[in-house]
């Protein structure tokens, strides 16, 4: 079996308004040593270069800090009420394996970046853990300051810490160079992404 010893059942902890989606302690002591060439100046999730930048797990209270508005810079979000948001937050936390990680500007108390790590338990490769990167976005007024790299590398190193044997992502062609600088590769003969979109089913 792999080294997936860090997967705690955080759902068993207390429930409150400022709950994190996952245990914030998992973001401590990530192994930034091998990402040195990707960042100039060097920053980490625990030392992000500015005192007003905080990198942390998504919180229930982030509905009021512009989290969904950030996602709408990535794709269509639709109308989501606070109760819809909270229900989905608890769905994710109950299911486990969802590591939505955000950057907050503590001066404005607004979420300015986000990325999602999703882990999947496998039987193959001796009960391995496989990871996927999803929903990477930085607020357009904060782009070009390494925050995109910071948030992607943070969840990538978290995936490694959780014992993942690989991590993959889907992206548009123009972002291939961005992800290449962070260590992601197009593997020859193994870099196709296929899609089947389902019609929305009318529940009535
Ligand atoms: C992609 C994104 C997260 C990058 O955030 P960022 O904070 O600007 O990124 P950084 O400052 O850390 O890195 C910028 C680097 O990426 C490159 N880059 C960023 N966005 C790019 C884009 N759309 N096309 C091409 N290159 C891009 C920059 O040229 C820069 O390269 P350099 O370091 O060689 O100068 C941000 O542009 C964004 O939120 N885009 C909209 C949502 C999106 O497309 N998300 C990705 C889904 S796969």
H-E order: EHHEEHEHEH
| Overall mean confidence score, pLDDT | 93
Gross CATH architecture: 3-Layer(aba) Sandwich
Largest sheet: spatial strand order: 1-2-3-4-5
Number of domains: 1
Molecular shape: globular
Going by helix content, strand content and strand pairing, the class is alpha+beta
Q: Which band does the percent of strand residues land in?
A: 15-25%
Question: In CATH's first tier, which class applies?
Answer: Alpha Beta
| Associated small molecules | coenzyme A
User: Helix tally?
Assistant: 5
Radius of gyration from CA coordinates: 17 Å
Sheet bearing the most strands, described? 5 strands, mixed
Might you state the CATH topology name? Aminopeptidase
First-last Cα distance? 46 Å
Low-confidence stretches: none
CATH superfamily: Gcn5-related N-acetyltransferase (GNAT)
Could you walk me through the main structural features you see in this protein, from its secondary elements to its overall organization?
- Residues 83-184 form the N-acetyltransferase domain.
- Its EC number is 2.3.1.4.
- One of its GO terms (molecular function) is glucosamine 6-phosphate N-acetyltransferase activity.
- InterPro entries: Acyl_CoA_acyltransferase (IPR016181), GNAT_dom (IPR000182), GNPNAT1-like (IPR039143).
- With 204 residues, the protein is an alpha+beta fold.
- It has a single domain, classed as Gcn5-related N-acetyltransferase (GNAT) (Aminopeptidase), CATH 3.40.630.
- It has helices at residues 67-71, 82-95, 124-127, 147-161, 176-180, and strands at 53-57, 98-105, 110-121, 129-138, 164-168.
- Strands 1-2-3-4-5 form a 5-stranded mixed beta sheet, sandwiched between helices.
- It starts with 52 loop residues before the first strand and ends in a 24-residue tail after the last helix.
- It binds coenzyme A (COA).
- The site of coenzyme A (COA) has 17 residues, from strand 4, helix 4 and helix 5.
């Amino acid at each position: 079996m792999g080294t997936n010893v860090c997967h705690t059942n955080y759902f068993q902890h207390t429930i409150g308004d400022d709950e994190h989606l996952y245990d914030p302690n998992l973001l401590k002591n990530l192994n930034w040593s091998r990402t040195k060439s990707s960042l100039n100046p060097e920053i980490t999730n625990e030392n992000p270069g500015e005192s007003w930048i905080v990198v942390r797990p998504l919180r229930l209270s982030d509905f009021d800090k512009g989290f969904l508005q950030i996602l709408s810079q990535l794709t269509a979000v639709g109308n989501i009420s606070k109760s819809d948001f909270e229900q989905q937050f608890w769905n994710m936390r109950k299911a486990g394996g969802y590591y939505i990680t955000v950057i907050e500007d503590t001066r404005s108390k607004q979420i300015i970046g986000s990325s999602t790590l999703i882990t999947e338990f496998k039987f193959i490769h001796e009960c391995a853990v496989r990871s996927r990167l999803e929903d990477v976005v930085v607020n357009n007024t904060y782009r070009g300051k390494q925050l995109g790299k910071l948030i992607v590398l943070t969840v990538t190193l978290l995936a490694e810490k959780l014992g993942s044997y690989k991590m993959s992502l889907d992206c548009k062609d123009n972002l291939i160079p961005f992800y290449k600088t962070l260590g992601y590769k197009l593997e020859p003969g193994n870099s196709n992404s296929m899609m089947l979109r389902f019609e929305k089913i009318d529940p009535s």
